């Protein structure tokens, strides 16, 4: 090989190889430190785009699970309020049954009617003051729960019909005009109270079915989240075994590259001996 002082080709080749090794080593160290195979768009553009899409799906589904949970919570509060109303109506049944018998005096019926009026007022209070997250539950005509995986095809809306609840609106039955002041009025009121109990029970059943629907949807979305995270992990996660092996390989190559570069520079200096 001709000796030259203008260009040290072997040194340039060694330097290029060393530069490539160091870039690979840096990439390996980054993968090990972050646990991710893809740390920049340059690592895998297509994989990064897919992973980002999966992350958006997971984010939307996670919030949708929370939306469904909030919906279930609101329906449970509504059911609790209706349960209390049922308890009050059962008390009203006892009052109306007592007022309908002939052994009760008019003054006693007046006292029973006062208790009945108090029950109707309490039902009104429950209907007006039962809230969830600052919103009156029985004031809205519908409860809409939005769930999505961030795509138009993966969007679901569950609509739950809500009703006004007070003594004049117990799912279709009104107790407003009922009284317990006479035997006849008490008998009529008893019929309306029993109908109200049945209608409130039907309403609770409807709300319970909607609650079950939201709970099921939440469970399904939980499975989706797990599967999507698993898919994202397959794309993004570094293979620690492979990266550890690469770390050893590139560390050794870096050391041998430095040694080769030093040797190339030493060979270049041998030209000076010819001038001595």
What characteristics describe this protein?
276 residues; rod-shaped; f41 fragment of flagellin, N-terminal domain; 6 strands; two-stranded antiparallel sheet; 5 helices; single chain; mainly alpha; 8% strand
Break the fold down into its secondary structure elements and pairings.
Layout: H1 9-34, H2 45-99, H3 106-129, E1 131-132, E2 135-136, E3 142-148, E4 155-161, E5 165-166, E6 169-170, H4 183-236, H5 240-269
Antiparallel strand pairs: 1-2, 3-4, 5-6
Helix pairs in contact: 1-5, 2-3, 2-4
Strand order of the largest sheet: 1-2
**Name of the CATH homologous superfamily of the domain at 45-236:** f41 fragment of flagellin, N-terminal domain
Mean pLDDT: 87
Largest sheet, in brief, is:
2 strands, antiparallel
What is the number of strand segments?
6
**Low-pLDDT residue spans:** none
In terms of DSSP E residues, the strand content is 5-15%
What is the helix content?
A: 55-70%
CATH architecture tag of the domain at 45-236 = Up-down Bundle
Helix-strand sequence? HHHEEEEEEHH
Structure classification: mainly alpha
CATH first level of the domain at 45-236 = Mainly Alpha
The number of helical elements comes to 5
Give the termini separation.
21 Å
Using the coordinates shown, work out and report the CATH topology of the domain at 45-236: f41 fragment of flagellin, N-terminal domain
The shape is rod-shaped
Spatial extent as radius of gyration = 39 Å
């Amino acid at each position: 090989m001709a000796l030259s002082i203008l260009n040290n080709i072997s040194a340039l080749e060694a330097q290029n190889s060393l530069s490539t090794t160091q870039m690979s080593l840096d990439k390996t160290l980054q993968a090990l430190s972050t646990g991710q195979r893809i740390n920049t768009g340059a690592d895998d553009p297509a994989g990064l785009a897919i992973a980002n899409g999966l992350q958006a799906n997971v984010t939307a589904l996670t919030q949708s699970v929370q939306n469904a949970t909030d919906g279930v919570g609101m329906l449970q509060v509504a059911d609790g309020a209706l349960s209390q109303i049922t308890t009050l109506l059962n008390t009203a049944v006892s009052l109306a049954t007592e007022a309908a018998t002939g052994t009760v005096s008019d003054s006693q019926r007046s006292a029973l009617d006062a208790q009945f009026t108090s029950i109707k007022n309490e039902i009104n209070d429950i209907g007006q003051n039962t809230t969830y997250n600052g919103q009156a539950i029985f004031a809205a005509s519908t409860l809409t729960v939005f769930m999505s995986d961030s795509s138009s095809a993966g969007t679901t809306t569950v609509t739950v019909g809500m009703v006004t609840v007070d003594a004049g609106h117990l799912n279709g039955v009104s107790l407003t005009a009922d009284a317990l002041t006479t035997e006849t009025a008490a008998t009529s009121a008893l019929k309306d109270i029993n109908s109200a109990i049945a209608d409130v029970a039907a309403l609770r059943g409807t709300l319970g079915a909607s609650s079950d629907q939201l709970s099921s949807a939440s469970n399904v979305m939980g499975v989706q989240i797990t599967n999507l995270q698993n898919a994202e992990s397959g794309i993004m996660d570094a293979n620690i075994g492979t990266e550890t092996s690469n770390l050893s390989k590139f560390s050794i190559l870096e050391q041998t590259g430095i040694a080769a570069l030093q040797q190339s520079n030493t060979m270049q200096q041998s030209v000076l001996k010819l001038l001595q």
